[in-house]
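Sample A.
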Amino acid sequence: MNQESVGVIDSHAHVFMLDLPMAADRRYTPAQNAPLADYLAHLDAHGCTHGVLIQPSFLGYDNSFMLQAIAQTKPRLRGVACVEPSVTMPELEALNKGGIVGIRLNIIDGVQPDLQTDSWQNLLDKVKELNWHVEVHCRSNKLSDMIATLLKQDVKVVIDHFGRPSDCQPARDYGFQQLLEWGRSGMIWCKLSGAYRISAAAAEGHKFFASAIHLLVENLGSHRLMWGSDWPHTQFEQQITPDYLSTQLNMLLQDKQLTHNILWDTPAKLFRFI
């Protein structure tokens, strides 16, 4: 991929090994290892200068493997951690020093936490103090309530995987329409990642990618959007090929300013690469 910019950032990926301790309440167990060396090769193959690692849900709150990966590759990588609401400020500061720039709430098929409790409110205050963001992974019909609660705490909010709409035509998905409305406030970010999680069929996924980006640029602006590969494509390892990602990256390259904002400027600022 050719991009005449300072760099290219992959804003969403995971690294892990199958012999790591897994969370007892995990939704699934991954099918294969995703070592750091393979991820770095993936970055190089797609012309990416930097990457952002996201703590996988099946590893629970033990962020140590991700932290080790970041330490081995600084300043190329940053991370987004999963933490319990009882986490202390010294523990968060240690994560901050280790290259962590935010926390993730992954409730795609789980119980939605009560963010109004004292413990969650205290955690969100700490997140704000560290100038981190809160990354939300949930289905689109739950998005609006989550966004409203988080913005009351004045924290930066990042939405995963296009907000996980249930319809391949985003204009028909009510939750996605609510995401667009929140986007007009200028207070949230959204990741252009995991289109295949809306439709595993390549043609349909590419069509969704193009139409969703048009709506998101129109309502959020390209300065609030970031691209992510979602490597290693957990649960879709066999369907997603390098060509699939290249096709979608090439869609972004049609507009020079769009390319600069989505692939570099926006994620570089949010994830503290600059």
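Sample B.
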Amino acid sequence: MKNAVNVPSISAELLTTLRPFVTLVERMGALQAQLAEGAITEVRIDYSGAVTDYDVEPLTTAMLKGLLTPIKDGVNFVNAPFIAAERGIKVVESTSSTSEDFSTLIRLVVKTIEGENVVSGTIFGKKFPRILRINNFYLEAVPEGHNLLIHNEDRPGVIGMIGSTLGKHGVNIARMQVGQEREKGQNVIFLATSSPAGDEAIKDLMSLEQVYSVKRIEL
């Protein structure tokens, strides 16, 4: 089923039932907002598996809230769809009752005037959100807190250099997930920190020859 959506607000009862999924899609939206280069023109969210037993329209609302909050003040579950419409963002959702690898898989594609980004996620253990894919990289990242998304060359010693650089600036690493391409050569590191990394730490990371890009991701 495919359709452009005008998403209603979420009832308190349904929010309780869908809370893990709401958290997941809201943070997927926030992640996408921070990955986006240029104005967002279209959002597509694909729901597969067990999540389609529920009404997914409230989840689309939660995703829009997460997507728009880093961009505009005052976004909430009620006004997020209207703000998206005001900004000319096309919103499309699709559902499929089957999912090959996970009981539930949610895929979010965000298009901008510069290109598009793809993020996929699921729920582990019925309540733990996980990011499984960022573009061509596959990982199992916890979407919360202060993070750095580092795109780097896949070679021995690079992770150590990144850790040493952050340590020099007093940035404590809380978690680290490495995502690899299907074809080797590049990685992304989804790195959670106890506090936000400062500008000087980012600058020093970018000075490493093996690091291609660094983005702060607040979830």
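B remarks: The two ends are 30 Å apart (CA to CA). The first strand starts at residue 2 and ends at 4.
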